[in-house]
């Protein structure tokens, strides 16, 4: 992370904590909900299967920037499916950097070639060892690992949603992150149970065991991009929601925190680690503040 960006984010955090402001700093643009996969745990793919045009996406990026957002995510669907004429996902990342966003990240399922060195992080979904990942996402594991090996930059971070299928694969993914070229870290979430995927949700006891495994792997030196100080809040769902410092825009609709905010009672079952981490950070949790500084400076 550039020193100027570090000072900017530090200043934002102090103003937010001391003045109890609710201004956003992290924004996500959904550039398409079209996806080439039909994953067992996903409730948001191929609903309209539309790829939003460049000018619309650029307008939404500008809207987020004008709100004060400086961390930008591009999400789908599958982001590498995005095209508008000759423009590709790379053009969006480059435009975001030109616009002034300090950190620009991309979320992908990893089934397309990964040639995007301009992104700060590419959050790539890996949901277990080969057997369990393929149960969730179809026969894609080998393709993903080949694409990672051929990636043009070391800016990949695994992104794993822990659920009933893969809850025993945390160690495998940590070791794969540690030992795989071009991968910096792994970031975990618990499965957030949309109405059609409730059967994949973890119990409190299963979340506890998962966090124990993650902490053990962190102690052994695995590159985990999460904050263990937030684990008790995630296990018990006692962190404040929604996260007002995060927003999502999709086809002109702006939502606080995420798309799931519109689903009744889903916030109280939220499994997104970053939501817990950010809400606790901006409430002034001292442990979270210092742990976040160490983690972000290490991996971004």
Task: Note the topology.
Layout: H1 3-19, E1 26-30, H2 54-66, E2 71-75, E3 83-84, E4 87-88, H3 89-99, E5 103-108, E6 121-125, H4 130-137, H5 141-149, E7 156-162, H6 170-179, E8 183-190, H7 204-219, H8 231-236, E9 246-250, E10 253-256, H9 273-281, H10 286-299
Parallel strand pairs: 1-2, 1-9, 2-5, 5-6, 6-7, 7-8
Antiparallel strand pairs: 3-4, 9-10
Please give a structural write-up:
This protein is an alpha/beta fold and 300 residues long. The chain is built from 10 helices and 10 strands. The strands form 2 sheets. The chain has an 8-stranded mixed sheet with strand order 8-7-6-5-2-1-9-10, with helices on both faces. It has a two-stranded antiparallel ribbon with strand order 3-4. Helix 2 (54-66) packs parallel to helix 3 and helix 6 (170-179) runs parallel beside helix 7. The chain is globular, with a radius of gyration of 18 Å. The model has no long low-confidence stretch (mean pLDDT 94).
């Amino acid at each position: 992370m550039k020193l100027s960006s570090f000072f900017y984010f530090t200043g934002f955090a102090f103003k937010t904590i001391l003045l109890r402001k609710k201004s956003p700093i992290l924004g996500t643009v959904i550039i398409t909900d079209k996806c080439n996969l039909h994953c067992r745990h996903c409730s948001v793919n191929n609903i309209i299967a539309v790829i939003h045009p460049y000018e619309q996406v650029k307008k939404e990026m500008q809207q987020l920037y004008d709100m004060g957002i400086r961390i930008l995510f591009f999400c789908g669907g599958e982001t590498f499916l995005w095209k508008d004429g000759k423009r590709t996902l790379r053009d969006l990342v480059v435009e975001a950097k030109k616009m002034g966003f300090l950190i620009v990240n991309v979320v992908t399922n990893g089934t397309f070639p990964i040639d995007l060195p301009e992104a700060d992080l590419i959050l790539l979904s890996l949901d277990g060892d080969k057997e369990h990942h393929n149960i969730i996402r179809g026969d894609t594991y080998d393709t993903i690992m080949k694409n990672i090996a051929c990636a043009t930059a070391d800016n990949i971070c695994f992104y794993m949603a822990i659920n009933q299928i893969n809850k025993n694969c945390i160690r495998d993914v940590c070791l794969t992150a540690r030992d795989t070229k071009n991968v910096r870290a792994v970031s975990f979430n618990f499965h957030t149970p949309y109405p059609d995927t409730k059967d994949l949700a973890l119990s409190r006891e299963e979340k506890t065991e998962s966090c124990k495994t993650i902490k053990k792997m962190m102690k052994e030196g695995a590159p985990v991009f999460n904050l263990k100080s937030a684990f008790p809040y995630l296990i018990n769902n006692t962190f404040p929601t929604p996260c007002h410092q995060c927003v999502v825009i999709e086809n002109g609709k702006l939502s606080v925190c995420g798309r799931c905010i519109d689903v009744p009672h889903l916030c109280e079952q939220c499994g997104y680690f970053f939501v817990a981490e950010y809400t606790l950070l901006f409430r002034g949790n001292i442990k979270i503040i210092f742990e976040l500084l160490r983690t972000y400076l290490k991996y971004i």
